[in-house]
Specification:
Elements: H1 5-8, H2 14-27, E1 43-44, H3 50-60, E2 65-66, H4 82-86, H5 92-106
Parallel strand pairs: 1-2
């Protein structure tokens, strides 16, 4: 499930609210505390600030955040992915997950295979009419 952007800004604050609501989860007969259900969500990175993205990654995990933009609207990042590239505390592998790896896993797509090198053309001489082989 992808969270709509207007709800995404609330996601980092949810664990505190969920801890306050945990006594109520028993009354609703939930199998686990509400905070356990966070792992079922995926969110996008359209938070427009590296510090906000860092908090989002800390709360959701690097495997639950993927690149998001407001394209074609001129809001937020002018270059998609720039906040991910500028985010402190992310290593190259985590940045790659946020930029493309998590979306590929979510949508169950594999990376495009490397193109095979082109074979060198072979010249075949056509027989000339009237010549002996």
């Amino acid at each position: 499930m992808l969270l709509p952007r207007r709800r995404q800004l609330r996601v980092p604050a949810r664990p505190g609210r969920q801890r306050l609501a945990q006594p109520r989860h028993r009354a609703r007969r939930l199998a686990a505390p509400p905070s356990e259900y966070t792992r079922r969500f995926h969110v996008d990175s359209a938070v427009f600030d590296p510090r906000a993205l860092r908090l989002l990654v800390d709360v959701m995990g690097t495997d639950r955040v993927m690149l998001g933009t407001d394209y074609p609207f001129p809001l937020g990042e002018q270059e998609p992915g720039s906040v991910i590239r500028e985010c402190p505390g992310l290593d190259d592998a985590e940045r790659e997950l946020l930029l493309s790896g998590n979306a590929r896993a979510f949508f169950e797509t594999a990376p495009a295979p490397e193109p095979a090198p082109a074979a060198a053309p072979t010249a075949v001489a056509a027989p000339v009419a009237g010549s002996a082989p």
